[in-house]
From TrEMBL, chain A:
PANTHER family: PTHR43044, QUINOL:CYTOCHROME C OXIDOREDUCTASE QUINONE-BINDING SUBUNIT 2. This is Quinol:cytochrome c oxidoreductase quinone-binding subunit 2. The lineage of its organism: Bacteria, Pseudomonadati, Bacteroidota, Cytophagia, Cytophagales. Coiled coil: none annotated. It comes from the Bacteria. The chain crosses the membrane at residues 22-44, 64-88, 100-125, 165-184, 209-229, 241-264, 284-306, 326-344, 353-373, 385-408.
UniProtKB/TrEMBL annotation, chain B:
It comes from Rhodonellum ikkaensis. The keyword Plastid does not apply. The chain crosses the membrane at residues 57-77, 97-120. It comes from the Bacteria. The keyword Membrane applies. Signal peptide: none annotated. InterPro entries: ActD (IPR021776). Keywords: Membrane, Transmembrane, Transmembrane helix. This is Quinol:cytochrome c oxidoreductase membrane protein.
Length: 429, 176
């Protein structure tokens, strides 16, 4: 076998002004679509007189908040999955992925922005997104007192009185983002220092911190899914929800890693990443699309089969809705049927063109998954996919892409002193 | 001379030498019957020019059989033979059928694949294993060449080709 190892290991990603410009163009297009959507929403009605009578008037900005929340949760997930994938390679002592390891790592650069956006959005939009933030729910003398939410109140408000300020909830949000950013910086700094100094100590050190991060992430990914997504439907709960959100995050993160790796290869970077590495990434996407569908269906089947009203309300709200019903099937088609059928053959996983198509569709499909988690509980029949949704998604995609590519350009594209780099060159399947 | 009976064996110590040897033997025009090695050698299939296995096709059809069986079984039981109302659903509620259908598909695909593999690679219970050299289970790679299949070359000439590509020994093996 040929042992070609004279790759240029000092290559850096050049974040050219032309590329910056095209990302910013997408952002401007998104912003324009968003503005059109907002104007249409303000002047195009959407005020339901019947609901206004009940004291729950619908305002156009609620749809804006819901969209902010969908994208906050979705892009936070992709960012943290990048760090998780990086940590996973060290914890599993995997060598095959070393060539493109800086790609998932750079996703973490979005985390500080994601954290600020998430916390600011929560304080602006709390009553409009989260039913449990209304204090009358916890007042026994109020006509709208809710016994079930009162029972869950401590999870948000401890140690303060229920209905005041959600200390526990806010602390968790700060804690998760704080630790995620801390672990990202720790792993990133160790990996960058390895470039300068070399030696196996860095690898052992990163493995240790990766293990700590994975333990923390195991708990925090689940709890953040309850906090940020499941608490929207406050009455309802599912014990599978943490896994459901994680699987959605993981498969979108893998799709993003694959897309950026193929993109970099087409630009002439990462010559050591060949079709064998792409094949393994494709297998990951294939496998975790099925995993997501498995979780989705397991959650659905138990609720469908048991037919307990307080559980089945979640699916009735979605499946029997004119607004969301069709999207459920589009969601399953994009995220399960299509990747399952297209990525089944070996060739489709080894050729960039199929993966680029499927990864893009998966990234849109899982955005839709979060759309289906957030909007029915916040907007009801006033939701849907329109200018606001598409515009906001484009703004977030370009913003996150700008930050991630900027982060990618900060250091070497290849961890050149990684002890398993040689193993990665000869990965063969 | 009868085919599949008399073989010239080239014994190799090192898998890199073996990979190179396979290419060179094939270039010289000698047809290789099979290469045996104690562990998987990466790239061996490629240099031997093997086509991809057709086992996935067998797996697909056994899986399809499993799906069909599972659906027919459940429809017959739940709708025709002994209808029961469960959870207020229709007798034949499709989502309920998914787990059993999935499991039977996987089960039949796996069993079918193992069975086809066993039979096609002569690991069937009534099959008789042909050991070319006991050391292929330990530390030697053996390239077997069917003499009758290489009529253009004599036994000697094949041996010379093997020697030239780095074989440490050249032996002869005949089966009844």
């Amino acid at each position: 076998m040929a042992h070609v190892t004279n790759y240029n290991l000092n290559q850096k990603f050049d974040f050219t002004s032309a590329f910056k410009k095209s990302i910013l163009t997408v952002m401007v297009i998104g912003a324009v679509l968003l503005a059109i959507g907002v104007v249409l929403a303000i002047f195009g009605g959407g005020h339901d007189s019947a609901e206004e009578g009940a004291g729950h008037a619908f305002h156009w900005y609620q749809r804006l908040y819901a969209n902010l929340w969908i994208n906050n949760v979705y892009f936070t997930g992709i960012a943290i999955i990048g760090v998780f994938f990086f940590a996973l390679q060290y914890a599993a002592q995997a060598g095959w992925s070393t060539g493109f390891l800086r790609v998932p790592l750079s996703f973490g650069y979005w985390l500080p922005y994601a954290g600020v956006l998430m916390i600011v959005t929560f304080f602006i939009a709390n009553h409009d997104l989260f039913h449990w933030t209304h204090s009358y729910l916890f007042d026994k003398n109020d006509a709208q007192y809710d016994k079930i939410i009162d029972g869950k109140g401590s999870f948000f408000y401890w140690p303060m009185d229920k209905g005041t300020f959600p200390v526990f909830y806010i602390v968790r949000m700060f804690l998760f983002f704080g630790f995620w950013i801390f672990f990202f910086n720790k792993l990133k700094n160790l990996s960058y220092a390895e470039d300068l100094n070399g030696g196996n100590d860095y690898w052992y050190n990163i493995r240790k911190w990766s293990a700590f991060f994975i333990i923390f992430f195991a708990v925090s990914s689940s709890v953040s899914a309850w906090d940020w997504v499941m608490s929207i439907d406050t009455h309802w709960f599912s014990t599978m929800f943490g896994w459901y959100v994680f699987s959605s995050w993981f498969v979108s993160g893998l799709a993003a890693i694959t897309l950026i790796t193929i993109f970099l290869k087409e630009k002439g970077y990462l010559p050591m990443v060949n079709e064998n590495h792409i094949h393994d990434l494709g297998k990951f996407i294939f496998g975790f699309s099925i995993f997501w569908a498995y979780i989705w269906f397991s959650q659905f089947l138990l609720i469908y089969y048991a037919n307990i009203p307080e559980e089945s309300v979640y699916f009735i709200e979605r499946l029997s809705s004119d607004v969301y019903g069709p999207f459920i099937f589009v969601n399953l088609g994009l995220n399960f049927v299509l990747p399952f059928l297209v990525l089944m053959t070996r060739d489709s996983k080894r050729h960039g063109i199929f993966l680029k198509l499927i990864c893009s569709l998966i990234l849109f499909g899982h955005w839709m998954d979060f759309f289906l988690m957030v909007q029915p509980g916040t907007l009801g029949h006033n939701g849907g996919i329109g200018f606001i949704e598409i515009g906001m998604l484009l703004v977030y995609v370009s913003g996150a892409a700008y930050v991630v590519f900027g982060g990618l350009a900060k250091a070497n594209l290849v961890p050149k002193n990684h002890p398993m780099l040689e193993e990665s060159y000869h990965h063969h399947i | 001379m009868e085919r599949d009976k008399n073989f010239v064996l080239g014994v190799y110590d090192d898998e890199d030498v073996l990979l190179d040897a396979v290419t060179r033997v094939r270039e010289s025009g000698v047809k290789i019957h099979e290469v045996y090695s104690p562990f998987p050698v990466h790239g061996l299939d490629d240099v031997l020019g093997y086509k991809r296995s057709r086992l996935p096709i067998a797996a697909f059809f056994f899986g399809l059989l499993g799906t069909t069986l599972a659906l027919v079984m459940q429809f017959y039981m739940m709708k025709i033979d002994w209808p029961m109302i469960i959870g207020g659903k229709d007798y034949a509620a499709i989502p309920d059928f998914v787990p059993v259908t999935f499991e039977l598909t996987v089960l039949l695909a796996a069993f079918g694949m193992v069975g086809v593999f066993m039979i096609s690679s002569n690991l069937k219970p009534w099959g008789q294993a042909r050991i070319f050299d006991l050391r292929i289970t330990d530390d030697k790679h053996v390239m077997a060449i069917d003499i009758a299949n290489n009529a253009g070359f004599g036994e000697e000439a094949i041996g010379d080709v093997l020697k030239a590509t780095g074989a440490t020994e050249v032996n002869k093996k005949s089966f009844e």
